[in-house]
């Protein structure tokens, strides 16, 4: 074994730098409370590398604190003062309070030193790689950096380590001849801080691939969308690949590499690459919910080694499953040292949504990067897809999205995957076909059944309803919808009035912000009259709309409302879907037939009506934006005049149930 190593070492003779320093472990929660970004992360990496004999094959360097003068170009005076002093005695009584005012930040006596060491260490390896003393390097640092903004610590990040090092090489060490740097941010979260720092700078091509879900995934804003391409001379030098859903894995990342990053890197021709190497997109990560394998990371890295003569600096960002984190870093070290990926394989088929995102990014950036202008062959993008996971912007979920969230679903299963040896991560062809068949069966079956979806709220305005089919948002919506898998428009639209009560309840939604949203009393009453706009769609589309109205994420490997449910609802009038219990619109109500096609709507269940009556859940008038949308629906649908529509809403908002 040793002979093999020394042989390969003499053959390649790569000088790979490595930095680790136990002092960066002193940054931890002040009360000892568990936190995903904890010292054991870098300890686990170091232990794994040591046990595999990696440090002996590397140039191990000492961590260095960054000097303030090199931090100032990137961070504001106030921010630097805060981070420099926050761990000193004078802040003992105020430290927790200051941290609590920041977004997802804790601070203790060790924070300042760790922040300076993290930034300084990335600078140190970057300088040595730029000089050519090292071929490449990995700085195992914490706290991470890519969320830290010019004037603000956030998302577990104090200083933006990668931005500080990039600025240092370009502006403080011009004699080293590094004029163009490619930053690849493969952390599962968007590198918001880094993006802003080089927004107008064409010397830095910032590329980030991350979960976005139309702005609902941390940091939960639009900064990470693919339309954010940089500005002025920096236009085109900022590339975001925003995932529409979680569970992206090797095939999704590699498709992005092959069809966006690598072609652009060829044209940009960087002098050096810095990787914001978060491993929270790794399989089993409790925050990321994606499934990149160590093998996947090694291929992603290997593909980047072709550029900048292999001058690659890796700086640790996130990564919260210790096994997965350590195994992934180890896989990358093997590539840096040997220039060959570790053994393994991954399934070949990206999600359908992955192709959609790739095409959108290519189109957005084709004016700047002609290599992206060609349309991808249909044969490629329509190849078999894995089961689609729809992540919706549900009206039901009123929670704020503060801080990276821990996902609970299927974590156990994912962790099991991590614990398997790499060779076992191979997915055989048969199991693919099985998945693909199951996936296609229910969708193609239900795509042949037509239903009327009876809308009674903002969906009565067609452009708003189409967001649930085609994706996107209309004016007044604070976040876009993901859309349905089948994006074809409704085959027919008609209006009706039905003997049911319309009312407005709850006081906040993710889509519309403060204000109530429309509900429909599931029981009929001849005294009542509600307008409904009927859209003739497929039962498959109805399922995707049900999902978007109720929960934020669900694996659509089986339908929520199938043929059996359809048959039973036509007998029982109303059926409450167990699987969507958390949502507000999981009660599917049958309203008879039109042209012999069943009419379905979705609303709250009868027990919720009691809560609305008792005041346990508030009745609440809608926000202006929501009301406007509803009025537009009624007016454009020629049901009511604007005044009548306003009065209709007014009555539904105030009359007790
Ligand atoms: Zn992250």
From TrEMBL:
GO molecular function, one term: histone deacetylase activity, hydrolytic mechanism
A GO BP entry: regulation of developmental process
One Pfam short name: Hist_deacetyl
Top EC class, one word: hydrolase
SUPFAM superfamilies cross-referenced by the UniProt entry: Arginase/deacetylase
Reported cofactor(s): Zn(2+)
Protein name as catalogued: histone deacetylase
Organism: Liquidambar formosana (Formosan gum)
High-level lineage: Eukaryota, Viridiplantae, Streptophyta, Embryophyta, Tracheophyta
């Amino acid at each position: 074994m040793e002979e093999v190593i020394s042989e390969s070492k003499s053959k390649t003779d790569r000088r790979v730098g490595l930095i680790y320093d136990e002092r960066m472990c002193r940054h931890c929660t002040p009360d000892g409370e568990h936190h995903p970004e904890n010292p054991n992360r870098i300890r686990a990496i170091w232990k794994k590398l040591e046990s595999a004999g990696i440090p002996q094959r590397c140039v191990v360097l000492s961590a260095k604190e960054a000097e303030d003068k090199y931090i100032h170009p990137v961070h504001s005076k106030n921010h630097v003062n805060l981070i420099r002093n926050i761990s000193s005695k004078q802040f003992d009584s105020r430290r927790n309070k200051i941290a609590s005012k920041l977004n997802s930040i804790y601070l203790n006596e060790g924070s300042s030193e760790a922040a300076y060491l993290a930034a300084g260490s990335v600078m140190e390896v970057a300088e040595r790689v730029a000089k050519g003393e090292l071929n490449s390097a990995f700085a195992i640092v914490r706290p991470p950096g890519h969320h830290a903004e010019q004037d603000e610590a956030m998302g577990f990040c104090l200083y933006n380590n990668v931005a500080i090092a990039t600025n240092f090489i370009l502006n403080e060490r011009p004699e080293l001849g590094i004029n163009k740097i490619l930053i690849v941010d493969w952390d599962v979260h968007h590198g918001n801080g880094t993006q802003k720092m080089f927004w107008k700078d064409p010397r830095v091509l910032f590329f980030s691939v991350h979960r976005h879900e139309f702005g609902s995934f941390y940091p939960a804003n639009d900064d990470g969308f693919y339309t954010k391409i940089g500005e002025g001379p920096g236009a085109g030098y900022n590339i975001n690949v925003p995932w529409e859903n979680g569970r992206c894995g090797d095939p999704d990342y590699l498709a992005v590499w092959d069809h966006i990053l690598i072609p652009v890197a060829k044209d940009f021709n960087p002098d050096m690459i810095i990787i914001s190497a978060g491993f929270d997109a790794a399989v089993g990560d409790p925050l990321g919910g994606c499934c990149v394998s160590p093998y996947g990371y090694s291929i992603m890295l290997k593909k980047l080694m072709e550029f900048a003569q292999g001058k690659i600096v890796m700086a640790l960002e996130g990564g919260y499953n210790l096994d997965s984190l350590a195994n992934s870093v180890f896989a990358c070290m093997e590539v840096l040292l040997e220039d060959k990926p570790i053994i393994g394989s991954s399934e070949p088929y990206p999600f359908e949504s992955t192709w959609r995102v790739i095409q959108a990014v290519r189109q957005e950036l084709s004016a700047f990067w002609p290599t992206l202008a060609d349309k991808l062959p249909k044969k490629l993008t329509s190849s078999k897809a894995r089961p689609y996971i729809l992540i919706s912007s549900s009206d039901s979920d009123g929670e704020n999205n503060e801080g990276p969230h821990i996902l609970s679903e299927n974590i156990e299963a994912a962790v099991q995957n991590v614990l398997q040896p790499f060779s076992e991560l191979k997915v055989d062809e048969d199991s693919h076909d099985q998945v693909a068949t199951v996936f296609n069966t229910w969708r193609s079956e239900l795509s042949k059944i037509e239903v009327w979806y009876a809308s009674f709220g903002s969906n009565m305005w067609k452009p708003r309803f189409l967001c649930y089919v085609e994706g996107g948002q209309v004016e007044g919506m604070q976040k876009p919808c993901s859309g349905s898998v089948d994006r074809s428009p409704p085959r027919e639209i008609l209006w009706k009035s039905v003997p049911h009560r319309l009312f407005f309840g709850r006081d906040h939604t993710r889509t519309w912000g403060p204000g109530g949203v429309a509900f429909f009393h599931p029981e009929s009453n001849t005294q009542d009259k509600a307008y409904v706009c009927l859209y003739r769609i497929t039962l498959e589309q109805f399922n995707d709309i049900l999902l978007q109205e109720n929960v934020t994420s669900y694996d659509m490997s089986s339908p929520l409302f199938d043929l059996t449910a359809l048959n039973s609802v036509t007998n029982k009038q109303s059926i409450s879907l167990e699987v969507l219990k958390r949502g507000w619109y999981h009660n599917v109500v049958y309203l008879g037939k039109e042209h012999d096609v069943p009419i379905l709507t979705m609303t709250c269940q009868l027990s919720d009506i009691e809560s609305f009556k008792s005041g346990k859940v508030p009745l609440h008038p809608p926000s202006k934006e929501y009301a406007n949308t509803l009025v537009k629906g009624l007016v454009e649908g020629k049901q009511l005049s604007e005044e009548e529509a306003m009065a209709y809403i007014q009555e539904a908002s105030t009359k007790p149930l």
